[in-house]
Amino acid sequence: MKRILVPTDFSNNAYNALFYATRLFQNQPCHFYILNTFEVNTPILTSRLDTSKGDALFQKLRKESEEKLLETKHRITLDTEEVQHHFETISISKELIETITKTVKSKKIDLVVMGTKGATGAKEIFMGSNTVKVIQSIKSCPILMIPDAFEFVKPMEIAFPTDFKRFYLEEELKPLVDMTKLFDANIRLFHIHEEEQLDELQEYNFTALKKYLKDINPTVHWISKFSKKSKLINDFIEDMDVDMLAMVNYKHSLMENITHEPVIKSIGFHPIVPFLIIPDAS
């Protein structure tokens, strides 16, 4: 049974990510962990009175967290009566990223699913500050980011941008292949090329990638770099009716490059479809 962690701040975006995940795995039973973290900020120097206030605040926040988690659990159970999923709630008074990291390890999580915006919904932030921190911190588990208000559609077309400069390990490609098997999806290899031809290393990696994916028979698309990569990717998604974007997050990868382009600081790279981020296994 697949074990899926879904952090929530009880925003509509967070619930939408949870619902999307239940539909994505509608044909197989999964164990969902719905996680909420809350922090109690107390002064370093505290008197007995301050400590008492801190304890009262902790109890209040814990009660609110547990009650809202229970509401979320009841709601998602009713919304997914036809599928065989199991839901478990976790309420912890600790920092979000630390908690996700520990929970992934302790619960042997297979996938983390998050919305791309939190309760504040600040558009100028790249996919939400917590989203970026999770991408940077979680190195042992794939992460699936769901755009705000994205309605579920079966991911029949999955785009996999690559520069062919790196050899992909079988372990890294497995989450991508597994995703295609859910609904017999197609993979579209998407190469943004800056040179006329691939060099020897790129040719080798390209051949190896096609060989590993031969059963899926991916299509290959060559796009000239005439504008910023983040724009090219979103244009490709729209032109090809792509339902999901997938990348391996390794050092100097396309994933790392697009998050550091100057455009991020102004309008941000906002994936318009669910975004599967696969950790570096090397």
Question: Any overview of this molecule?
Answer:
By secondary structure, this protein is an alpha/beta fold. It has helices at residues 12-24, 48-79, 96-106, 129-137, 170-183, 200-212, 229-239, 254-258, 263-266, and strands at 2-7, 30-37, 86-92, 111-115, 143-146, 157-161, 186-193, 219-224, 244-249, 275-279. Helices cover 40% and strands 21% of the residues. A 10-stranded mixed beta sheet has the order 3-2-1-4-5-10-9-6-7-8, with helices on both faces. Helix 3 (96-106) packs across helix 4. The longest helix has 32 residues, at 48-79. The two termini are 26 Å apart.
What are the key terms here?
single chain; 282 residues; alpha/beta; ten-stranded mixed β-sheet; 9 helices; 10 strands; elongated
Mean pLDDT: 85
Distance between the termini: 26 Å
Alpha plus pi helix count: 9
What is the topology, as strand order, of the major beta sheet?
3-2-1-4-5-10-9-6-7-8
- Tell me, briefly, the overall form: elongated
Secondary-structure element series: EHEHEHEHEEHEHEHEHHE
Helix content: 25-40%
Radius of gyration from CA coordinates? 20 Å
Structural class: alpha/beta
Number of beta-strand segments? 10
Kindly estimate the percentage of residues that lie in beta strands according to DSSP: 15-25%
Low-confidence stretches: 119-126, 261-268
Major beta-sheet overview: 10 strands, mixed
